[in-house]
Design brief:
InterPro entries: Chloro_AB-bd_pln, Chloroa_b-bind
Main location: plastid
Function: The light-harvesting complex (LHC) functions as a light receptor, it captures and delivers excitation energy to photosystems with which it is closely associated.
Shape: globular
Order of helices and strands: HHHHHEEHHHH
Helix content: 40-55%
Number of helices: 9
Distance between the termini: 29 Å
Number of strands: 2
Structural class: mainly alpha
Pfam family, one: Chloroa_b-bind
Radius of gyration: 23 Å
Keywords: Chlorophyll, Chloroplast, Chromophore, Membrane, Photosynthesis, Photosystem I, Photosystem II, Plastid, Thylakoid, Transmembrane, Transmembrane helix
Length: about 260
């Protein structure tokens, strides 16, 4: 459920965005009324903010300032400002992991199905034995590396900018200097120099969170797909394309249930 926490809180999976500011629009409306001497109805003139359900009034704590905020929080999880800040970071991290996971699953599955590489299907990859290290060794290394990275991320969340201080990362602080919590910068994590002005990078943030939410849904689809069909996503796609009218998700679910 944590995968979708901020997806629920900060916006849903709405793929449209509208760039409008109610405050600026109200001022323009007032100016028009003052110049023309006519009464202008703000409610009729201001286009309603885009929400996950058209016509629904978003909760007051979701004011549209967060990237991808479409007012979706039916459980009221974001009422506490501190919790909302954490959920924002939680969704961002899960979205990035999901995007990496989707790309990795599709790439390795494509290599496997085309015969280019003798790779296991993605849901059996964890049971594969490697010659260069044992499974226990790999688990320990992963815990150490991931634990270090997640600890640094949490410390930066608690005290923004603290992890860029001199001496906090073996003299490499300048290469990992963060732009703001959740958006690391520097040549290592931002080699293309995108969104250097993070305060005015709303478009980049919106694109990332939309793709991340889509990737989280795709990962969920991969899980269900593997559980029902016991094959990878490329195999499922090829089977569907071979007979599009009779090889669909409906027929597959009904066949597996019978």
């Amino acid at each position: 459920m944590s995968v979708f926490l901020r997806g629920g809180i900060a916006g849903g999976f709405h793929l449209r965005s509208r760039d409008s500011s109610a405050v600026i629009t109200k001022r323009r409306i007032s100016a028009v009324g003052a110049v023309t001497g006519r009464s202008v109805n703000p409610a009729a003139a201001i286009e309603q903010r885009a929400t996950w359900l058209p016509g629904l009034e978003p909760p007051p704590y979701l004011d549209g300032k967060l990237a991808g905020d479409y007012g979706f929080d039916p459980l009221g999880l974001g009422e506490d400002p501190k919790s909302l800040k954490w959920y924002v970071q939680a969704e961002l991290v899960h979205a990035r992991f999901a995007m990496l996971g989707v790309a990795g699953i599709l790439l390795t599955d494509l290599l496997r199905t085309t015969g280019i590489s003798n790779l296991p299907v993605w849901y059996e990859a964890g049971a594969t034995k490697f010659d260069f290290a044992s499974t226990k060794t790999l688990i320990v290394v992963q815990f150490l590396l991931m634990g270090f990275a997640e600890t640094k991320r949490y410390m930066d969340f608690v005290s923004p900018g603290s992890q860029a201080a001199e001496g906090t990362f073996f003299g490499l602080e300048a290469a990992l200097e963060g732009l703001e919590p959740g958006y690391p910068g520097g040549p290592l994590l931002n080699p293309l120099g995108l969104a250097k002005d993070i305060k005015n990078a709303n478009d980049w943030k919106l694109k990332e969170i939309k793709n991340g939410r889509l990737a989280m849904m795709a990962i969920l689809g991969f899980f269900v797909q593997a559980s029902v069909t016991h094959t990878g996503p490329i195999d499922n796609l090829v089977e569907h394309l071979s007979n599009p009218w009779h090889k669909t998700i409906i027929q597959t679910l009904f066949t597996s249930a019978s």
